[in-house]
Automatic annotation (TrEMBL):
Superkingdom classification of source: Bacteria
UniProt record similarity statement: Belongs to the MoeA family.
Stored InterPro entries: MoaB/Mog-like_dom_sf, MoaB/Mog_dom, MoeA-like
Keywords recorded for this protein, A-Z: Magnesium, Metal-binding, Molybdenum, Molybdenum cofactor biosynthesis, Transferase
Lineage: Bacteria, Bacillati, Bacillota, Negativicutes, Selenomonadales
Functional description taken from the UniProt entry: Catalyzes the insertion of molybdate into adenylated molybdopterin with the concomitant release of AMP.
UniProt-recorded name of the protein: Molybdopterin molybdenumtransferase
Amino acid sequence: MKEIRTVDAAGQILCHDITRIIRGVTKDAVFRKGHVITEEDIPVLLSVGKDHIFVWENDPSKLHENEAARILQSLCQNDYMEASEPKEGKIELRATVDGVFQVDEERFDAVNGIDEVTIATLPQNMPVRAGTKLAGMRVIPLVIDKEKMEQVRQAAGDRPLLRLRPYRKNVRVGVVTTGTEVFEGRIKDTFTPVLADKLKAFGLSIEEHRLTDDVTEHTSGAVRELVRLGMDVILCTGGMSVDPDDRTPAAIRDAGAEIVTYGAPVLPGAMFLLGYIRQDDRTVAVMGLPGCVMYNDRTIFDLVLPRVIAGEMLTRREIRRFGIGGLCMGCRVCHYPVCGFQH
């Protein structure tokens, strides 16, 4: 491209968009890349502060910002994502399904570490709805060296930088409510309705529900029964603290669960338990939910549940990494997931 005086630009082809900003009214292009400038256009260009403009001249070693953005799109876009058309050198990606958004952090950082290249995304592991904006990308200059974009390709590797894990359909959920006081009817079970509301947000419901007293064998038997009935996720409530008569963690272990963690660096939710029971060709996620899940708006359960529904098997390391950002601020009006909790 080359720079010329605007008053001499009639007949030339713009190589970039010309943007006009009117505060509180509009921010849009008055002329787009490829527009052939006429005499009538010159006063408009001058009115938006363009005394000089850049017009296209072929340079085989350079790429226009829109072409570079297309390269970034190809390196980021994965299944269940749709891309916008380039606008002023920027492309955005949106979700086409509900699910959990994820970024390959190491490769992503390597790409963003290359000068003049920028990609911005939502936070890691954020639950999103179809239509949610996931990422935006562009290069900084109007034209960029082809060689630099080849460096970007090398840094990105051979698979997309971004991923959207869609929620699984027809996930079967069972609940085991523990506690002699609930089992004998001395107090009302107020925990299960909270879980039903949480699951409803994902289009799920509680298919099987068992009540047990504080006897470990009774609780482990209820868990094993729900596994036999084909549950994909089993939620156990009550008995999750360190009191001597709180025996749910032992019951989950006795039911055959491989415990990923009992305890998590998240507040509320430190006494959370996650394990998996392998049954034939199935893997059943089992969670022990502390009482805070019943009376706090957001807890460890809200961080783990979307990923379990999406079919992800979490590791101890991933749970441990919740620690940074794992302190809920208890805002009067909860805006999760658009907040710092976990992210």
